[in-house]
């Protein structure tokens, strides 16, 4: 976030410098307000660019074995350009390289989910998925496993059969 702030400030300085250079080349015929307007437009442009490239930059840095399951696009009234071109504000990734199976329960998979957000820290949560029953249980509140692998105290939630996380984990 700090690097993006520095980049935004330097973009404003660079655009103001270009406006100043154009003013010198035109014999100082441009209005005095052109430099602050150019600086502001440069900073707004850099901010928009950072918003639209965040997802691609973050996705490229994911290690092998981590696959993006779903994304959430953002539109807002105070960013009118997002009504035409929404940007990805957050996404969920699954660590498919470490999906665990139990021989006693072949339809269940244990996987790690990672939740990424534009201005949020990355959160990780283990999830138990029942591929045959199309349901899931987050294991963040102390669910316990018995000797045969069954889970007690799990809060099972139904999922659509075509849920991207369920599909991704159950196909591995």
Describe this protein's structure:
The chain has helices at residues 2-25, 34-60, 164-171; strands at residues 66-74, 87-95, 100-102, 105-117, 120-130, 135-138, 144-145, 151-152, 157-158. By secondary structure, it is an alpha+beta fold. It folds into 2 domains: 2-61, no CATH class; 88-171, no CATH class. Strands 1, 2, 3, 4, 5, 6 and 9 form a 7-stranded antiparallel sheet that branches. The longest helix has 27 residues, at 34-60.
Rg value: 24 Å
Q: List the secondary-structure elements in sequence, H or E.
A: HHEEEEEEEEEH
| Tally of helical segments | 3
- Number of DSSP strands? 9
Taking the alpha carbons of the first and last residues, their distance comes to 35 Å
Query: Unreliable runs, pLDDT <50, ≥5 residues?
Result: none
Question: In total, how many domains does the architecture comprise?
Answer: 2
| Computed structural class | alpha+beta
Give the structure's gist in a few sentences.
The chain has 172 residues and is of the alpha+beta class. Strand 4 (105-117) and strand 5 form a beta hairpin. It has two domains: 2-61, no CATH class; 88-171, no CATH class.
List the helices and strands and how they pair.
Blueprint: H1 2-25, H2 34-60, E1 66-74, E2 87-95, E3 100-102, E4 105-117, E5 120-130, E6 135-138, E7 144-145, E8 151-152, E9 157-158, H3 164-171
Antiparallel strand pairs: 1-2, 2-4, 3-4, 4-5, 5-6, 6-9, 7-8
Summarize this structure as a short list of keywords or feature phrases.
172 residues, 7-stranded antiparallel β-sheet, two-stranded antiparallel ribbon, 3 helices, 2 domains, alpha+beta, 9 strands, single chain
